[in-house]
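One record is kept unedited as follows:
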Amino acid sequence: MDKDGYGLVQPSAYKQGHKCCGGCCDVRRATIIVNIVNIVISLLFILEFVWLDKLIAKDEEVVGDDDEAQEELNTLVAFVKQTEGLMEGLMVLRIIGCAIGIYGAKTFEWKYVAGAVAIYAFVLIPDIAAFGLLFGPVMDILFAYPQVFLIMEMRSGIMTPENYINEEQSCCCV
């Protein structure tokens, strides 16, 4: 211990923790990176929904006198707006979860990272509905993967603020 009561950790010759992204970085860094990527993807989806909404608003005025076509368009517009509202809500929830995960990784608080993983699990079913059985779950699992290992390492004492000097690893994102 030093004079302030903090434990001093000597750099070791080997890393105990899990390597992520093909051995490129530690799970703490990978958690931060995948959550930032997920926030960007979610924001792009929200922008797409806004663009789609404007496109639908333009098309509502085009139909003209055909009552049957107008009825079909109104039904489609109502469905798209309901689905769009649900998806925007899920994207906002995902962004909040990612922010919580980043905070947990930065502060070495496993409970926050676990909250982010819980949100990934919550949006898994809507992701399957929206993006298909293959793409939706695969993306969620890939984004949750480093976070699950980070939780395990934090809970076992491998990934701590004092020991991060031994666990830190990066090939490109310093």
In short: The radius of gyration is 22 Å. DSSP finds five helices and two strands in the chain. The CA atoms of residues 110 and 155 lie 7 Å apart.
